[in-house]
Amino acid sequence: MRPRASDNLPLYSPEERRRRDASPWTLVQGVLAPLQFFIFLVSLVLVVRYLTTGVGLDVATASIVIKTMVLYTIMITGSIWEKDVFGKYLFAGPFFWEDMVSMLVLALHTAYLAAWLFDLLTPQGQMLLALAAYSAYVINAAQFLIKLRAARRQGNNMPQALAEIAE
Description:
This protein is mainly alpha-helical. The chain has helices at residues 14-22, 24-53, 57-86, 96-117, 123-153, 160-166. The longest helix is centred in the C-terminal third of the chain and has 31 residues, at 123-153.
């Protein structure tokens, strides 16, 4: 399925909305997304602290590795969610562009892990690579927030369990 061409089309068909609401992965995504964002914020502070002061390389590195592991988890569970709702693991029409940017986010985070594990860059270079990964992540997170807002506007309200978490 290609990306939907118009913002006027509903994000979910009635059947997709039913599957979304019934999928246990919807709640998993609703928990992991804010958790990942919190970890990102803490890690961002630690990375910037290291880059500006030269202090805290080990804790900044650990925070990036944790952020990346949570990213992998949310990507795997998100793919399962997408399969439950849209019938394909990635690049379903309504989330095509979000998935495309997610691939960039994954590639940059994975490049960071490779640079760290194989000592391919200086510590400062690794931190700058992490910041590039984080920049892509912020864009991707914004895409998903815009999509959530569009779903609300179109009457595709989120399941009650997610609404309670979002409040």
